[in-house]
C-alpha cells in the first residue's frame, strides 16, 4: 500500500479577509510542485466565507466541480440558471463545466459564516455539454456505513449524483472504537481521505481533524477511530498530468 500524508497545517493558506482558504493542492497564489494533484483529483479547497460575501461571476471549462457545504448557506447562480439556488449542509452540488460555464457563489447569510469543501476532478471526457445537479443526503444514512455521494455518469448506481470521470465520492460518520474497511474500485484507483472531524488511524498514520491521506496500490485498507469521526473519501483514477 502506497500512502501520502497531508497534515492540516501543511496546506496552502490564503487570508483574503472575507475568505479564509485552505488548499490541499496548488491553487491560485499557492504553489507546491509536490502537491499538484492526486490522480484525477486536482483541487480540494476548504473555504470559510464571510456573511454576504463570495465569488463573483467567473468561468470554468472541462472540469467536474463538486461543492459540499458543511455549515451555513451557499447560494449559486450560473449561465444555465438565471435564479439563485440555495445549497445547504447535507446537500451536495455537482457541476460539469464542459464546453464552458459562468457561475457565481456567495454566502447566502447576512450574519453567519459559510464553510464548505470545493473539489475539482479532471474529467475523462472533454467538451461535454455543461450540466448541474444537487441532492440531499441524510446524515443518518452514513452512520457507521458508507454513503455514496457522486459516481461516474457511466455507472448504474442509483441515488448518487453523476460526473464525467470513473470516480466516486463518499462519506462516513464513524463512532469511537469502530473499524471500517474501504474497498477500492480497481488497482488503477487511489483514494484521498479527508478527516472532516475526528481522530483516526490508517496503517501507521494517526490523522486528526482536516488531516488527509492519499492511499493507492492496494485493494483495500482499514480505518480505526480513536473518537467519533467524519470522513470524506475521494476515489479517482491515478492518472498522470
TrEMBL record:
What's one Pfam family the UniProt record gives for this protein? Pirin
Q: Quercetin 2,3-dioxygenase C-terminal cupin domain location, by residue?
A: 150-236
Origin organism of this chain? Answer: Corallibacter vietnamensis
**Which SUPFAM superfamilies would you find in this protein's record?**
RmlC-like cupins
Q: Which Gene3D superfamilies match?
A: Jelly Rolls
Family as reported in the entry's similarity comment: Belongs to the pirin family.
Report domain Pirin N-terminal positions: 12-121
Which residue windows are transmembrane per the record? Answer: none
Q: Can you tell which superkingdom this protein's organism belongs to?
A: Bacteria
UniProt name for this protein: Pirin family protein
Amino acid at each position: 500500500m502506497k500512502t501520502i500524508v497531508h497534515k492540516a497545517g501543511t496546506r496552502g493558506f490564503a487570508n483574503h479577509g472575507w475568505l479564509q482558504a485552505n488548499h490541499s493542492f496548488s491553487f491560485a497564489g499557492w504553489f507546491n510542485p509536490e502537491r499538484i494533484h492526486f490522480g484525477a483529483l486536482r483541487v480540494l479547497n476548504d473555504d470559510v466565507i464571510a456573511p454576504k460575501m463570495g465569488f463573483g461571476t467567473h468561468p470554468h471549462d472541462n472540469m467536474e466541480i463538486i461543492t459540499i457545504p458543511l455549515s451555513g448557506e451557499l447560494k449559486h447562480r450560473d449561465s444555465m440558471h438565471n435564479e439563485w439556488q440555495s445549497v445547504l449542509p447535507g446537500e451536495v452540488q455537482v457541476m460539469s463545466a464542459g464546453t464552458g460555464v459562468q457561475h457565481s457563489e456567495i454566502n447566502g447569510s447576512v450574519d453567519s459564516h459559510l464553510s464548505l469543501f470545493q473539489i475539482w476532478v479532471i474529467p475523462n471526457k472533454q467538451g461535454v455539454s455543461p450540466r448541474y445537479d444537487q441532492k440531499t443526503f441524510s446524515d443518518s444514512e452514513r452512520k457507521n456505513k458508507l454513503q455514496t455521494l457522486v459516481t461516474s455518469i457511466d455507472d448504474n448506481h442509483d441515488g448518487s449524483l453523476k460526473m464525467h470521470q470513473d470516480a466516486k465520492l463518499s462519506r462516513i460518520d464513524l463512532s469511537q472504537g469502530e473499524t471500517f474497511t474501504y474497498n477500492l474500485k480497481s488497482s488503477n484507483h487511489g483514494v484521498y481521505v479527508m478527516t472532516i472531524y475526528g481522530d483516526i488511524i490508517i496503517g501507521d498514520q494517526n490523522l486528526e481533524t482536516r488531516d488527509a491521506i492519499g492511499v493507492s496500490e492496494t485493494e483495500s485498507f482499514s480505518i480505526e477511530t480513536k473518537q467519533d469521526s467524519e470522513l470524506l473519501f475521494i476515489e479517482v483514477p491515478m492518472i498522470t498530468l
